Amino acid sequence: MQRPATLTVSNISASDIGNYNCVVSSSCGSPVTSANAALTMNSTPGITSQPTGDTKTVGQSTTFTITASGGSLTYQWRKGTTSLTDNAKISGAKTNSLTLSNLLVADAGDYNCRSYFFMWKYYE
């Protein structure tokens, strides 16, 4: 008879990091130990270098860059609260460096970048 077993570790802290395994035993034989499953923890993202403002004239280009640390990071640049996408004028909308080309007066505004991290592991 098979009985699945699950270990859930909630509210993970640094002291929980390590290898976990399962020991299965019965009255019919010697205990058997599973392979290890490693529990790791990525640090939360942090912006270590903020983008700086810039003043340009119509037709010029500008680049905003941030430096972030943490796990596997993703980025999303926004103008105000509107997420940007790459096009003929915008490049790097989902990277740490945003470039705006051939500027128009309408491109003036507040630009910001959100940095996220994601973490997943697959074990066999």
Q: What is the makeup of the main sheet? A: 3 strands, antiparallel
- How many separate helices? 0
Shape: rod-shaped
> What's the total count of β strands?
12
Order of helices and strands: EEEEEEEEEEEE
Would you give an account of this structure?
- With 124 residues, this protein is an all-beta fold.
- Helices cover 0% and strands 40% of the residues.
- The chain contains no helices and twelve strands.
- It has strands at 18-20, 23-26, 29-33, 37-39, 46-49, 62-65, 67-69, 72-79, 82-83, 90-91, 97-100, 111-118.
- The two termini are 21 Å apart.
Summarize the structure.
This protein has 124 residues and is mostly beta strands.
Keywords:
124 residues; mainly beta; three-stranded antiparallel beta sheet; 40% strand
Topology (SSEs and partners):
Elements: E1 18-20, E2 23-26, E3 29-33, E4 37-39, E5 46-49, E6 62-65, E7 67-69, E8 72-79, E9 82-83, E10 90-91, E11 97-100, E12 111-118
Antiparallel strand pairs: 1-4, 2-3, 5-7, 6-11, 8-9, 8-12, 10-11
